[in-house]
Amino acid sequence: MSDIVYTLEGGTYLNITNRCPCNCEFCIRKKGDAVGDAKRLWFDKEPTFEEIKAAVDAYDFSGVREAVFCGYGEPTNAYDNLVKTASYIKQKYPAIKLRINTNGLSDLINERPTAAEICKVIDIISVSLNETDSDSYDRITNNRFKGRAFDAMLRFTEDCVKCGNEVHMTVVDVIGENEINKAREICNKIGATFIVRSFERGR
Known about the structure:
Blueprint: E1 5-8, E2 11-14, H1 49-58, E3 66-69, H2 79-92, E4 97-102, H3 106-110, H4 115-121, E5 124-128, H5 134-141, H6 149-162, E6 166-172, H7 177-190, E7 193-197
Helix pairs in contact: 1-2, 4-6
């Protein structure tokens, strides 16, 4: 079994799926088979909830303040396991804050509104904005929802903000200063916190 729980630069992460509707130009998984202390993040077979639960039980969460759903896939592609795992961790470790790093396409992936349910079990939602218009977004993410993805991602983010959760929108620094400034304006309008991620650092 590949790594399900791993650490990166002192942070604790949960890798629950390799599936993703995007193939982003800057995706960290193009750099290698793992990051941080993980030996391998590619699954030969998607983990079941029981396998994820066992990995959580085996991990030493002593001193962990935040755990992040972010591996080599889009966490909402394993929606049921995401909600079940988050609920389990909340029950077992109520002091730990949970964050999801997501492309924000959960509603399209799961063909229904999902923000409210996600916000019940996840404290911090970090959405990859990536670009500032639909065509540019489609080009850089190579997503399978061409023409629909950008607007769906914005709606999902707005819904999370309305739920009252802490919401971030991120871009990777490879898009250039002009686009970063445009992205900041979009983020401010939605009411989320804007973060510029480093491509070199992978986070």
